[in-house]
Design goal:
Blueprint: E1 7-11, H1 23-34, E2 40-45, E3 53-56, H2 72-75, H3 85-97, E4 102-105, H4 112-121, E5 129-131, H5 139-149, E6 157-163, H6 180-194, H7 198-202, H8 204-207, H9 211-214, H10 222-231, E7 238-241, E8 244-245, E9 249-250, E10 253-256
Parallel strand pairs: 1-6, 2-5, 2-6, 3-4
Antiparallel strand pairs: 1-10, 7-10, 8-9
């Protein structure tokens, strides 16, 4: 086992990307081989925002198909992940000790921002999973959540923030044409993360004039702040995958810590 697991940010794209052979699908399949099997996985997804912060606490998780209008094959996919009620209670206590109100939720399953990436990276569902909600889409709040989760990395726990490096659904196109604003934002994002400019990312709406086009709403960007803070906000991250889906959906993935 590594002495300390990293924290990761992954882009999960549109739900049906799992039915394709896109480059990001390959990257997620390889992710499970990238690190030794952790004791547990904690996922913070763009698709669960709750105050107090929710922590899944069931013995097992259902699969939430929180989308509509896709091929029937997508609704047949399930991810029978185990939970870990003891670890969930421990996480809720840690959050409260960090000044973050939290609540155990025993009957919530995993949304598609959690189960779709995990079905690719850990398809056997042998590792217990706990999903932790975002407190809001406020970037400083989401960074504080990451700091509270950070000690778990020393306990063989893999922390994953799941969102999108560029997430503007209105700009999707089936011609797989990537517009300049999307590629320029991706370049800015990589330079900011690998250049160790955490504070610039924390105020991304002011730091990058392209942010409103790349993220009309910030919930898919917020897990990146959680992952970096969980990794170590004093150290740069590293991009280990970069591609696009539907032309302008950024599928970048970063490693922190």
């Amino acid at each position: 086992m590594p002495s300390r697991y990293p924290a990761l940010f992954i882009s999960h794209g549109a739900p049906d990307f799992i039915l394709t052979e896109q480059a990001a699908v390959t990257a997620l399949r390889q992710l499970g081989e990238r690190y030794p099997q952790p004791r547990a996985i904690v996922v913070v997804s763009a698709h669960w925002i709750r105050r107090p912060v929710g922590v899944t606490a069931g013995e097992a998780h259902g699969t939430i198909h929180d989308f509509s209008g896709f091929a029937e094959a997508l609704y047949q996919l399930t991810y029978p992940a185990k939970g870990d009620p003891g670890l969930a209670a421990n996480i809720a206590d840690r959050l409260r000790a960090h000044g973050i109100a939290s609540e155990l939720i025993p009957d919530r399953g995993l949304d598609h921002g959690a189960w779709i990436p995990l079905l690719l990276s850990h398809p056997q569902a042998r590792v217990p999973v706990i999903q932790v909600s975002l407190p809001s889409a406020d970037l400083p709040e989401c960074a504080r959540l990451g700091e509270a989760l950070r000690p778990l990395r020393d306990e063989e726990v893999l922390i994953i923030g799941s969102g999108g490096s560029v997430h503007n659904l209105r700009a999707m196109n089936r011609e797989e044409r990537t517009d300049t604003w999307a590629s320029d934002f991706e370049q800015w994002l990589r330079e900011t993360v690998e250049g160790n400019r955490f504070e610039e990312l924390l105020s991304a709406e002011q730091s990058s004039p392209l942010f409103p086009a790349a993220h009309p709403t910030s919930e898919h960007f917020a897990p990146l702040l959680t992952a970096w803070a969980a990794g170590d906000r004093q150290r740069p991250g590293r991009r280990f995958h970069h591609s696009y889906s539907y032309g302008n959906l950024g599928m970048s993935m970063f490693e922190f810590g």
